[in-house]
Design brief:
Elements: H1 2-8, H2 18-31, H3 35-48, H4 52-64, H5 68-77, H6 83-96, H7 100-107, H8 114-123, H9 129-145, H10 157-166, H11 168-187, H12 192-206, H13 210-222, H14 226-233, H15 243-253, H16 257-264, H17 271-283, H18 287-292, H19 301-310, H20 316-334, H21 346-367, H22 372-381, H23 389-401, H24 405-418, H25 423-435, H26 439-453, H27 457-470, H28 473-480, H29 489-499, H30 505-537, H31 542-545, H32 547-589, H33 595-615, H34 628-647, H35 652-692, H36 694-709, H37 712-715, H38 718-743, H39 747-773, H40 778-795, H41 816-844, H42 848-870, H43 874-889, H44 894-897, H45 901-904
Keywords: Membrane, Transmembrane, Transmembrane helix
Protein name: Tetratricopeptide repeat-containing protein
InterPro entries: TPR-like_helical_dom_sf
């Protein structure tokens, strides 16, 4: 009717009513999805009658399409025709673009808007005119550089009106269809499938229409099929109002962060675009750049203020440094750009909407079921020819909850093949891998996702939880990233923050470096072991069979990492405490010099001790291979003797110098003893871990040996042969002792398993001769046995281990020298307690009663030790005697009441 009225009133624009008709017709065309046609009509209405209503509609339409520069130019051109209305709209446009100084300048041209002008005056610096001048220059540069122009509307008004009349019937049908579908979707969420089917029928009969396509995007999003919504959206004009932000939001849901950022970087600087950019930057943890995005108006104002305070508040230099750091990390946080999603063919649109409705109904039905029925429902709805990402994701969850983790992993990987960047799919995959103890695959998946798809909040939280479970707290905190996280992640991040020593930045850096070194070493170690294991069991079974060696390597490395840190703390504490004590002792010896000079002497002695220790720092760490007993310890004793010799010289200063030298030796010895004690504790703990997991330790050792054995140059080296012989003996000991003990819960099973363990150990010990002597065919025989044993240990088929009867024990004749040495050792340990008591009597000064009791106990110990050493069956006799005594008391046999080694190591042992 409006188009007919404009065509029937003569030449368009000649009547005063034409501007109002064109304004209403432009709004109607915009509502129908014909935005280019609507812009031309609104532009004509503004040319005919530039009042406030027309200019506001034109500004809103241009801004919604991202044509900010064209809106600025059009309003500036109309300032001469309608100065009051144009300057108000221009100021409103500048405010929405975040250019407050230019908005203030625009308002100064007219007399209206005094209150708005006053607020802008204070917001741009108030009486500080130089601040306003600096902001004006910055905003002018932004106006020229950042804002985009967009396309220019063209076409005669008469031709546009005839196009309106030609599309009237089609627009009417599309409007009714979209209105009905929208009412169904908004009134009831469960009616989204009905709305999808309604749109599918309408598209099949009338074809795609911009209004129907926009409603189809909303329906697909309501059905949970983001990929389908994105493919439908690509059929629309890219500059449609609200489409760039909606497009970026859908890309963000699919994890395509770089593509979303590129879509938002189209030059538009309106409030909607700035909010979308800021939300994307906050999602990837770039808070400083998010503040600069200036999303500080409308609904985002509270978030902007919170980020402003978190990024330094009024401390502009803090924000400047953080801005540079975020700019450097922008590409890494957003990931790489991926191939564009192809738009859906209009002919296939109806079928895709119908399929999405069927999938949504199946998902709704499965939500009301549990485990098995839900899996059956989702499996029946799955069509390999028409895969659906939401269906595969929900099916993976159902399989995971139904204890079908391997099948769930396959389904989730099928979904990730369609959408590899989606964060929820990545979360399910990592969680399933972690449940299956396939930590190496989980870490590798996290690394690939971070390198290719950026670091959104959900992916950062998943990575942080995985590293925390592996025991790398510093790396876990780094993976969580900034504090803008959801759910329980902020609490976990705060816990890691305290655990890694913040706000002590230097401590966090050291912990992070040690964690990173251990993690990279573990990944390299697992990669090497996986290559050898894959050559034995086949690459198709590698992922499921590599769990045992990977876990064993991780436990051992994590133990060494913790004890290494304990070694550093204990060594430094002992060293600095010794320095303080040494300086205090020297100061006390120089007390006759007066308080001041004695303090100076003590501080100087402490400084000398510290400098000397820093020179020999690496020799007092008790590291393997540092020759502590042959070099370090004799050198320390020699320094102590030299210092003691200096103290024998008459005079005060030789005494002070000698005590200082002795203090250097004493503190070095203290550090060495402390480090050695921690090293011993580390070795015992590592040995305990290896004995607790004999299968993993045996796998690692045999895989390493097989890898080294394949190098011909190593076979000819006697050093490598000696190492392989030691490895075989250690693995044989684990199989003979620890592996049977792991399963022995009753005496009968224990005897049977010990016999089988001895036979498997004997088969490994037979290889020692082949390794050392290397007769013809020996290396092939050794490699065959190693491959078979590795396959048996990896698959858990322990019955397939090579086994042979152990040789009968032989009687060895001992030489007289050996008998004498054994006798002297027996007499030494038998009389050691008595010798200690008698030697300590002059200092401890026991009374006669205590001394008699001590002599009695030590003599009894000597007699008991001699009897046990001379007669190996004496222990059995003692146990038999105790059993008879307890039997008489009714207490039973203590040998039957004593828990086994496995029970002592069980989780309920406490």
């Amino acid at each position: 009717m409006l188009a007919e009225a404009l065509l029937g009133l003569g030449s368009a624009g000649s009547d005063p009513l034409d501007a109002g008709l064109a304004l209403h017709l432009g709004r109607a065309q915009r509502d129908l999805g014909h935005e280019v046609r609507a812009l031309a009509l609104l532009d004509a209405a503004a040319e005919w009658d530039p009042d406030w209503l027309t200019l506001s509609a034109l500004r809103s339409a241009l801004q919604a399409r991202g044509q900010d520069m064209r809106a600025v130019a059009r309003l500036k051109a109309l300032l001469a025709v309608a100065p009051r209305d144009a300057q108000l709209e221009l100021a409103e446009l500048y405010v929405d673009l975040g250019l407050r100084t230019l908005a203030l300048d625009a308002l100064r041209r007219g007399k209206s808007g005094a209150r708005r002008r006053w607020r802008l005056w204070w917001a741009t610096g108030g009486p500080l005119w130089f601040v306003r001048a600096a902001l004006r220059g910055q905003e002018t540069a932004e106006l020229e550089d950042r804002l985009g122009g967009g396309e220019v509307a063209a076409g005669a008004v008469t031709l546009l009106l005839r196009d309106v009349l030609a599309d009237a019937d089609r627009d009417r049908a599309a409007w009714l269809l979209a209105e009905q579908a929208s009412r169904l979707r908004l009134d009831d969420d469960a009616a989204a499938p009905a709305a999808a089917r309604l749109l599918a029928d309408g598209i099949s009969s009338t074809g795609p229409h911009p209004l129907v396509l926009r409603e189809a995007v909303g329906v697909a999003a309501a059905l949970g099929d983001t990929r389908l919504a994105l493919r439908i959206l690509l059929l629309l004009d890219p500059a449609t109002s609200g489409l760039p932000v909606r497009h970026a939001g859908l890309l963000t849901e699919l994890g395509r962060l770089m593509d979303a950022w590129t879509r938002l970087q189209n030059g538009a600087a309106g409030n909607e675009f700035r909010e979308a950019r800021a939300e994307l930057l906050v999602d990837v943890g770039l808070s400083y750049l998010a503040v600069d995005a200036r999303g500080d108006t409308s609904s985002w104002r509270r978030n902007w203020r919170r980020l402003w305070w978190r990024t330094g508040g009024p401390l502009w230099f803090v924000r400047s440094r953080g801005r540079r750091r975020d700019q450097e990390n922008l590409a890494d946080r957003l990931g790489s750009s991926h191939g564009a999603i192809e738009e859906i063919a209009p002919a296939a649109l109806a079928g895709a909407l119908t399929r999405a409705a069927e999938v949504h109904e199946a998902l709704t039905k499965a939500d009301q079921q549990r485990r098995g029925p839900a899996v059956a429902t989702l499996t029946a709805a799955n069509d390999p020819d028409r895969p659906s990402v939401p269906l595969l994701e929900q099916l993976a969850w159902a399989l995971y909850l139904n204890n079908q983790e391997e099948e769930a992993l396959r389904r989730i990987r099928d979904a990730r093949a369609l959408e590899p960047a989606k964060a929820s799919l990545f979360d399910i995959e990592v969680m399933t891998l972690s449940f299956l103890d396939r930590d190496f695959e989980g870490v590798r998946a996290c690394d690939r996702h971070a390198a290719s798809f950026g670091r959104p909040q959900n992916a950062r939280a998943t990575h942080g939880y995985l590293l925390n479970g592996l025991g790398f707290s510093a790396l876990s905190w780094d993976a969580f990233g900034p504090a803008d996280l959801r759910g329980w992640s902020p609490r976990s991040r705060r816990r890691q923050w305290w655990r890694i020593g913040w706000p002590l930045g230097w401590l966090h850096k050291r912990l992070r470096d040690s964690d990173q070194f251990t993690l990279e070493f573990w990944k390299d170690r697992c990669e090497d072991l996986g290559i050898v294991l894959g050559s034995v069991v086949g690459p198709e079974r590698l992922d499921e069979l590599r769990v045992a060696p990977d876990r064993a390597v991780l436990h051992e490395l994590r133990c060494r990492l913790r004890w290494g840190r304990a070694n550093v703390v204990a060594r430094l504490t002992a060293g600095y405490a010794g320095i303080v004590v040494g300086g205090f002792v020297v100061a006390r010896l120089a007390s006759d010099l007066g308080p001041l000079w004695s303090s100076v002497v003590g501080v100087g002695a402490a400084a000398i001790i510290l400098g000397a220790l820093r020179g020999v720092y690496r020799f007092t760490r008790a590291e393997p291979g540092s020759r502590v007993l042959t070099r370090v310890l004799p050198a320390i004793l020699a320094v102590a003797a030299a210092g003691y010799a200096v103290t024998r010289i008459d005079g005060r200063w030789p005494l002070l110098v000698g005590v200082t030298v002795v203090s250097v030796a004493a503190v070095a010895m203290l550090r060495l003893v402390t480090a050695s004690a921690v090293r011993v504790g580390e070795a015992l703990k590592v040995r305990r871990i290896q004995r607790a997991d004999p299968r993993g330790y045996a796998l690692i050792s045999l895989l390493d040996m097989l890898s080294e054995l394949r190098r011909p140059v190593f076979r000819n080296e006697l050093g490598w042969r000696r190492q392989w012989s030691q490895t075989l003996e250690q693995v044989a000991a684990r199989m003979e002792i620890d592996l049977p003990l792991f399963f022995a819960h009753d005496p009968g099973s224990a005897d049977l398993l010990r016999h089988r363990g001895r036979r498997a150990a004997a088969a490994l010990r037979e290889l020692k001769y082949l390794v050392v002597a290397a007769p013809p065919g020996a290396w092939r025989r050794v490699e065959t046995v190693l491959r078979d044993d590795i396959a048996a240990l990896a698959t858990g088929s322990l019955g397939r281990l090579h086994a042979t009867d152990p040789p009968a024990p032989e009687t060895h004749r001992r030489s007289r020298r050996q008998i004498a040495v054994d006798a002297l050792r027996m007499l030494f340990f038998a009389g050691l307690p008595l010798g200690v008591v008698l030697a300590a009597q002059p200092w401890l000064r026991f009374n006669e009663t205590i001394l008699n009791w001590a002599r009695l106990l030590t003599i009894g110990w000597a007699v008991l030790y001699v009897l046990i050493t001379v007669d190996p069956t004496f222990r059995d006799k003692l146990r038999t005697g105790f059993a008879l005594i307890n039997l008489g008391r009714g207490a039973g046999d203590p040998a039957q009441l004593e828990p086994s080694g496995t029970e002592k190591r069980s989780p309920n042992a406490k």
